[in-house]
Each structure stands twice: as C-alpha cells, then as structure tokens.
Protein: Box C/D snoRNA protein 1
Organism: Oryzias latipes
Amino acid sequence: MSALKSQAESSSLEEEQKRIQNKISLSNCGVCGSEKAKYRCPACLTHSCSLLCVKKHKDDSGCSGVRNKTAFVALSHFDEMALLSDYRFLEDTGRFSDGASRDSLVRVPRTTLKLKLLASQARKMNITLRFLPLTFTKRRENSTVFNPREKMFLWHLKLMFPQSSSEFSQRRVPDRHTLKQILTTYIHPTESDPVTRQKLKMYVNASSENVKVFMKAEGRKANSVRYHELDTEKSLKDNLSFKMLIEYPVLHVVLRDQWKDYPLKGPAEPASACTSLATKNVGIDGQKRAVDHVSPPSVQTGTNLQTAAEEISPESEPPLQKRAKRGVEEEEPEEGEILDSSDEEEMLERNQAESIPLENNTSVNDMKNMQHDVN
C-alpha cells in the first residue's frame, strides 16, 4: 500500500510540473526559436530555453532581467502576488530611507562657514547663491572661490552646447571676463582649441548673431521652466546680477534653430529710482491730505496739532502709505515661480506689520468729537 501511495504522489508531482511547463511552452524560445521555452524574463517577459539563450538575450537587448516593481498593473490582473510585491516594495523603501538617515554623509550640515561667506559676498553683488547637500554631484564639483583682495568671484562654470551634444567645465573663471571672452576658447575660428573646435564645428561656422547664451531660471516649478538671456558683451558679474544660482552658473550656448526651445523669464531687476521717487511722493501727498483732513486751516490749536501728529504716526499709518515709504514696489511672483523660505518669512513679517488694529484711528475720532464740543 505504501508503495502504491508513493507512486501516486510522484505521478501527481510529475503531472503538476508538466502542467506548469506546458504553460510556459505555449511559445518557442524567443532567442533561438528552435526549442520549447522553459524560462521567462521577469523584466520583459521574453521566453528562453536555456542559460545560453538567457545570456544572449541580455547581451543583445541590454535587458537587466530585473522585474520593474513600479510597473502599472491593471485592476483585472491585480492578484495576491501583485499585492505582496507592492508590500515588499514599500518595506524595501522604508529600509532604504532608514539606512540613508543613519548615513554620516547625509547628516553633514548643508552650509559651512566658507559657504556662508560665499553667499554673503554674492548677496553684495545682487546674486542669490544657494547650495546643495554634500552628497550631490554638483556640490562636489563646485570649485567657486572668492578673492578678497581683488573683490571678485572665480566661478566654476559649465558650458552646454546642445546642438553638438557636448558640455565643458571650466574652473576659476574671473567674473570680470565677458561671455565673449569665455566662448573664444571654444568656438573661435582660430583662437580656440583644435580638438574642441572640431567637436563644436556647427558653432564655429555660425556667425555671432546666430549664437545666444541662456541660463536656466532657478526656483521655478518643473512644468514651468524659463531661461535668462545673457548678453555676450557684458561681464559674467553683470549677467549674473539679480539672478539666483544653485552652486555655479550653467550656460546654454544655443544656435538660432533652437531659440524657441528656451522660453524667457520676465525682467528680474528691481524698480528704477524714478519709480521709487514717485512712490515716495505719493506717500507724502497722502500724509498731507490726512493732516488737512484732521486740522482745517481756519483752526490751528494745540489739540489739532496733536491729532495730526497721531494721524501720521507710523503706528496708525494705512498699509498703502507704509508700502510707499519703502521706496520700492513689491513685485508679485511670476506664475510657476517657487518662493524661497526666506522670501516667505519676509512676506509674512510684512503682512503682520500691515495688519494693525485701528485703535489709534478711534482715538483720533474721539479727539475730533472733543474739538467739535469745544467749538
């Protein structure tokens, strides 16, 4: 009896294996095409018959053989195995995140004293300089320094030539050099390096009027990319003024055919001196009207003077007059632009300063009523 049972069990196992093999063998080998398929690639679901065919499939197609855990699965095909796969993927993600939080390189502070000094000197030149964590490649590549004696930046510069599929990095570029001088070593017909000139033949043969330099506007959403158009006749310092940089400048040298692929950002310079002067005059006229409204010319008493002084005091000034006293118009952020944390704090402080209770205005009205009773 035991022998019969063991034979029955072995036969059932063989039938099960044959059934599974028949499911896979519905098609022939996708590599050689001569044998029945025994294996299926987890990544691209290609059938194969042997180890040699598996290796050949990976070499020919470049397939990694690793299943895509984030691939879309239709609800009709979602089963327990797909649910288990998603659960294990979430576990791996949590484990990786926990391991990264314990990494000593990740926990290094983003800014050091040297970086703070660089950002401070850049701020004096109207340049907003931001830095990435130490683990980023762009952070490790950055070789920008500041020369305190000559008071100039020596920038790490990256030049992108998209129509030649080339990019070059240049270290310690003085900010006094013009963009034309910087590009001379790359696309000048005679003064550039011969090897570089051969790579950038399209740019060398083009005239200077058909070449423009763009720089990506930082601090914007991914679906609203904009660029600054730079002047090749101006220095690097003047071109970077009133712009934001992340680590170092990345310049895109583009020919006329692709200018349309680089949408421009609006002007980034602040309001002119004439605008600020006109704004100040508006604030002064508003103050004069407030004084005339409180104390008429016919009556000049001590009570009226005190009331006028209270009316134009900074605590009771209307928000519009406070903005006028700043001397510079506040520009609304452009669509698609992301506010920096420091900008958000500044706007919050301004809003809090402008939302002042009207207790002083009430006291002025009381003084008006007292004056009316005296008269």
